[in-house]
Amino acid sequence: xxxxxxxxxxxxIHTAFHQGQFQxxxxxxxxxxxxxxxxxxxxxxxxxxxxxxxSEEVLADIEGEDEIPDLAAVKALALYAGGNIEGxxxxxxxxxxxYSENGVVQVLAGTxxxxxxxxxxALELLTQHxxxxxxxxxxxxxxxxxxxxxxxxxxVQAARNWAQDSLLIxxxxxxxxxxxxxxxxxxxxxxxxxxxxxxxxxxxKSIVGQAIAEIHLGRFPEAEAALQQAMQKDPGNVDAMANxxxxxxxxGKDTSELFSSLQNKAPDHAHxxxxxxxxxxxxxxxxxYSIKVAP
Length: 295
Fold this sequence. Notes:
By secondary structure, this protein is an all-alpha fold. The chain has helices at 11-18, 22-26, 35-51, 55-61, 69-81, 85-98, 103-115, 119-126, 133-145, 149-163, 167-180, 184-197, 204-216, 220-233, 238-251, 256-265, 270-286.
């Protein structure tokens, strides 16, 4: 039986992880799990610890267990999250070369490779999956970051043929919908709202997703309320900060305090990196022109 199926014992912890309920995952009682599912459950919990900033604790927990590829992949992700980029790349590339058919290696090493800009290496690893929904979701994310919405949509459509009820595929479809626009914005909103407002599924990640959909739909007061809810739930959430900056720009509000907070909390956040790159491009374009004053 598939441990992630509706009857599988990993379903609830796996679902909680992808809903962004990381503390619930960490606290999950896995004592009754079967022997064959003890390692997958442990890996999900270790990943949740990394997600809440406990990368050092994770590295200490798995020290000396590098011979297990799944845990070596966790190590690569923890190294990256802890700022040891060079070590993370080395570990991820070694795993990709030696254990490319391992599903955990595909997802975690692929995550590291994509995060450091090695998109093609990540895709080469991820496309070796055999029905790994996490690998598919990561492939979708990479294609969206490459502005290849057509390829992202193709991945989602193919996965829906056999995994249409999967939470991950529904989330991936919502990501694609936010890029496609039109009536897809509303569909994406419904998906994130369902997770964000459900008492057993609400998490900062889903609330921010709902807010992003609201922004695209032009419902700024609703987006502001959702982002405030996210910030109250997790004051240090950098994605909530970044999207609050976007919303404030759109509504003409001051962004200086939020911008400073984001710079202090996550100086390498994608929003800041993208803004700096675009500012540089603007300066380069402006430098080609000189100011002429009429006599």
